[in-house]
User: Fold this.
Amino acid sequence: MSQRSYGQFCPVAMAAEVLCTRWTVVLLREMVAGSTRFNDLRRGVPRMSPALLVQRLRDLEDAGVVRRVAGRDSGVMEYHLTPAGRELETMVEAMGHWGQRWVTSELTLQQLDASLLMWDMRRKLDLKPLPRRRSVIQFLYAEQTPVDRSWWLIVDPDARGAGAPVDLCSVEPGFDVDLYVASDLRTMTAIWMGLDTVRAAVDSGRLLLTGDADLAANMQAWLGLSPFAKTRKLAS
Amino acid sequence: MSQRSYGQFCPVAMAAEVLCTRWTVVLLREMVAGSTRFNDLRRGVPRMSPALLVQRLRDLEDAGVVRRVAGRDSGVMEYHLTPAGRELETMVEAMGHWGQRWVTSELTLQQLDASLLMWDMRRKLDLKPLPRRRSVIQFLYAEQTPVDRSWWLIVDPDARGAGAPVDLCSVEPGFDVDLYVASDLRTMTAIWMGLDTVRAAVDSGRLLLTGDADLAANMQAWLGLSPFAKTRKLAS
DNA sequence: CAGTATCCGATGCGATACTG
DNA sequence: CAGTATCGCATCGGATACTG
Assistant:
């Protein structure tokens, strides 16, 4: 048995050998959420070095959790979960629910990351409450460093060929902005996590919406929330 | 944020910070299984050093997962799961099921450990199919080193005050033996994990039962199996 | 029984720069 | 875009011995 093995036949230990190494579960969460390409995965684990990311992907490939394949169109490499990998969804969800319930908001909201928040929001944005035309929403976090201060979500329900229906930019995309969303990052993160609401934040002045009145009125609806937002928090 | 933190507000990452450190999940599995005292926990994680064990227990205490209390009788220190800790059972089970399904038997059965197997068996032994009198069953793993070669399970359904209904000894307890169970450790482990059966092992000569005929005939019934034994294996 | 104390070695992993 | 390559340190944790 390898040096780092637990030396236990117990299935829990066998699974832990594969899963309980640094970054692995966080990476899996990003894969479960749907990212398949190297640089998309990087956006989900921005503080992980590329070298370590590729090492973990190889480890998971060896463990039968991930398969590396040439993308159907474009031929670009993609990382897909195998059936074994897809069955880890249960465990990733169990961990997320537990984290939402038992890790204090105080601790959680010390770990702010604008790029990660926007990347997650982009994925969960709900198109249904949005107009059929293209909408551009700019997020402003005034207290952040320049690189994290401004973000644009471009929603285009009609975009067929050209990528996803929601694009995320951190540089001016050149379109007119329909709605400006200004707040501090902590407030926006708390809303995303279900610890706060758009209404409460607006009323207390922590969130300022400027522009299209319909978009503003609908924000709680089109703003998708974290998959764990509905889990009731129990920690103090 | 600490050096080792993931720096993510995502609940999965927050939970992973607590749980995905070396030995932690394996230790939790032993706690979920019911062990509370330091040396009982050690038997469940025999290859973990006592220093690291106590460190992990402190870490889990800080995370609100474990509470260290003086035992009701005896005043001996005990480690109990808090409500937050008990809710980790779902995740530990999810990992165990996944391990049983997707880690190959070949890999699993390379990690044999007689003391761990006997310790787990002791806990799961089913008293109902056993006689009402005291029964002593000796396990013999001829190929193992002297210290791992002989084990006694002493089942005493009437033992009220004196500890558990099933005692495990690795030294001759001085009682007459009712049943001798001789096999290689791999076979016994495979049976425990649901990858083999008493019948098949006896028929093929890998398991030899000597002594009380009723005890022998009932073995598959009184021998409790791993909590994951019924999970169907899918890995090649 | 329930831990402490100490030491030291491997290695995990972070940082950074580079490439086809 | 999708990775490689290299370096070097911190630290994790394994081993062992000891104690109230």
